[in-house]
From TrEMBL:
Protein name: Maleylpyruvate isomerase family mycothiol-dependent enzyme
Protein's organism: Streptomyces dioscori
Record carries keyword Phosphoprotein: no
UniProt-listed PANTHER family: CONSERVED PROTEIN
Domain MDMPI C-terminal: 156-245
Amino acid sequence: MTQTLSFEDLLALIEDRSAALRDSVAGSPDLDVRVPSCPDWSLRELVEHVIEVHRFWAAAVAAGPSEKPPAVAPDATGSDDALPTDLLARSAAATEELIVALRAAGSAVGCWTWWGDSDVVENSGSVARHQVQEAAVHAFDAQLATGTPLPVPAVVALDGIAEFIGVSHGTAGPWPHAPARIGLHASEGESWLLDLTESGSRLVTDDGRDADAALHGSASELLLTLHGRLPLDPARAEGDRPTLQNFLTWPDLS
């Protein structure tokens, strides 16, 4: 998985997408509104989740190389009836905690991650890259809940597709269906070609063989479809539909 953004770029994008989430929540009159893309969560619970995520990965990076995830104490300041300003202040503090930990570590300090079975290196740089995507997708969740969905910025989405392939596909295990080739084609000009076999998912170069199915769209549309935030749009699908549906539901994102 080729790194396309600098470490400082990644830190800036974590801050930017986390701020986008908070901006959306700040404009909502109801923190208990359900999040359509995460129906088990209210908007308040979505923010609490992101707070927990940022604090967890800050601790993981600060702990350095480890075979076990860090033990993180619950946020004692949290409350179900927190005022919106209190909730958003805690979110901003958690984001800052993550950024401080990442900046102190630099881009190459080993740490525990959950993607040890993939080819993605387990270090602070990979954590930063993944946290850009987590913040971006959850910012979209918040925007969707407040009726203000916006595309994921192209620079984030393009890197996010490659990151998703490396981490989510890299830990998904064997492809449980007939071997297939899938193409992902972003309108920004980038494409990814994947061979799916009992060995898992593998990025390949174009050797002239047609893909069994393909998905077209903006980088934002592709990324959000991969993450299950947008449904499969027939107008953007090409080839064998069942194979494409299997592809989109294959990695367990729960």
